[in-house]
Amino acid sequence: MKILVIGAGAVGTYCGAALAMAGHEVTFGVRNSRRRNITLEGLELTGPLGDFHIRNVSHTADPAAVTGIDIVLSTVKLYDATSSARQWRVALEASDIAISLQDGVDGVERMRTCAPNTNVIAGLASTAGTSVSPGRVKYSCDTFSLTVGTAPSGQHTVVRRLVESIGNERNPLKIAIDQVQDIEQAQWRRFLALATHAALTCLIRLGAGAIYHDPALIEVARRSIREIFDVGRADGVRLDYADNEKALAMLQALPDDMVASMHHDLVSGRRLELDGLSGLVCRKGRVHGIATPFHDFAYACLKPHMGGGSAGLF
Fold first, then answer.
1. Tens digits of per-residue pLDDT, 153-162?
2. Which residue from 87, 76, 80, 103 is spatially nearest to 13, judged by alpha carbons?
3. Domains of the chain
């Protein structure tokens, strides 16, 4: 299959590398300023499964140069989902299917704002890895997990081919892939922990061990999770009360030093995905008349850093 990966961060690089090693024709859609690394070095992954250099990928900054694409994987940051969809609209709308792999729960909605005729479905990607530079990733676990929703009528075969190809025995990069009927439910179940972890590690500036095993901070985490749960249920998402405790247990099982990717962005002076995390909880809370005091506080405190530029202050 011909696959376009928009973005060359940790998720995009790992997915693109795995798909290229599985025999697919992979093209990266990246800005001109980021093409040099991939041109010179290809893709480079370093981690417990070994070090991999993948050179059989191409790249472009020109959407018009991409034709005949079966699947697009959008892996840009949530705050770039709209502008990216505008830039790559021609390729997105000409593809058989596009998969939004943004954090948060509104990546598909953001993409459709500027590429309304795209067959886009939501997905979840999870890897313990950091992007060193465009096309270069250090990963710290041996399995990357990918969850995708069901495709619109006519695109089921394309998604099934993707699912089947990722398990290719020739591929040393492990991706555990699952397809679910209710991707919205899966997104919000993850969001309970994701938005909580992002807010707390950015506010406290410490890892999971210092937060989710302290009695006072455990109650703060519970409050955060419950606010997300309440707005999700009010929005029509099928969440169970047991999901709250599962989210807390997930956070308590994290390595002691693990912080959210938004924390890495904060201390590095990069833009924050705050608007799509605590910001979304606050907005939906107001729509549904639900109080969200923790996320109101987190959003207000972190908003001055949302545009980046705070490196060195911490």
1. 666 677 777 7
2. 76
3. 2-181 (3.40.50.720), 184-305 (1.10.1040.10)
